[in-house]
């Protein structure tokens, strides 16, 4: 399979129009356009019955106490975990393109609705946990929400945009399912996968 993520080149920075947070010289970060990029794919194997699209950041600090705190930095030596930004399941086998802005066009305080979206069924992303302590933003975040790494992190974050061709029409997931649930449900059903990786940072010393 081959995946194209329009505007994102392998190993190059993700454009700000796809980001949840963009660099701000005084406030460190402000909300970005938060549009999902156009994704298109080809070469799905025979027997494909549905697709899963996901985007995740494997570089999120496992201990986030110092995230975005004045006078502190997040050490590059802290263990890192996956942070899911986009989960779409049960995308019909007839679909091979998600247009830019179709699943997200702007930051939605308290999150977009889960369940069936414009394309496929939306899972819950990890902004749900990250913003849980913010009374203005706390909620359940579904569908696409783009890069917004801590502005005081010592490392540049990587963003894996993936598509997976499956041999089942549905993963039979419902309710507020997350990235781990999707991975568990996909296990043993993946016929082929493709990935494009971009990078992003809000740390002015790394930009």
TrEMBL record:
The lineage of its organism: Bacteria, Pseudomonadati, Pseudomonadota, Gammaproteobacteria, Pseudomonadales. This is YbhB/YbcL family Raf kinase inhibitor-like protein. SUPFAM superfamilies: PEBP-like (SSF49777). Residues 97-120 are annotated as: Disordered. It comes from Marinobacter adhaerens. CDD domains: PEBP_bact_arch (cd00865). Pfam families: PBP (PF01161).
């Amino acid at each position: 399979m081959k995946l194209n993520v329009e505007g994102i080149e392998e190993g190059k920075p993700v454009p700000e129009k796809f980001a949840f947070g963009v660099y701000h010289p005084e406030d460190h970060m402000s909300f970005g356009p938060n549009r999902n990029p156009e994704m298109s794919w080809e070469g799905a194997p025979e027997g494909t019955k549905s697709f899963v699209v996901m985007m995740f950041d494997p570089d999120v600090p496992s201990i986030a106490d110092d995230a975005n705190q004045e006078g502190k930095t997040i050490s590059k030596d802290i263990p890192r975990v996956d942070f899911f930004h986009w989960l779409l399941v049960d995308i019909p086998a007839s679909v091979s393109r998600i247009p830019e802005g179709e699943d997200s066009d702007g930051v939605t305080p308290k999150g977009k609705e889960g369940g069936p979206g414009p394309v496929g069924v939306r899972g819950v992303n990890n902004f749900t946990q990250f913003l849980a302590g913010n009374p203005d933003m706390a909620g359940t975040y579904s569908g696409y929400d783009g890069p917004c790494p801590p502005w005081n992190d010592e490392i540049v974050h990587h963003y894996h945009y993936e598509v997976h061709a499956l041999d089942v029409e549905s993963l039979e997931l419902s309710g507020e399912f997350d990235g781990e649930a999707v991975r568990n449900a996909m296990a043993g059903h993946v016929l082929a996968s493709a990935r494009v990786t971009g990078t992003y940072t809000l740390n002015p010393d790394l930009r």
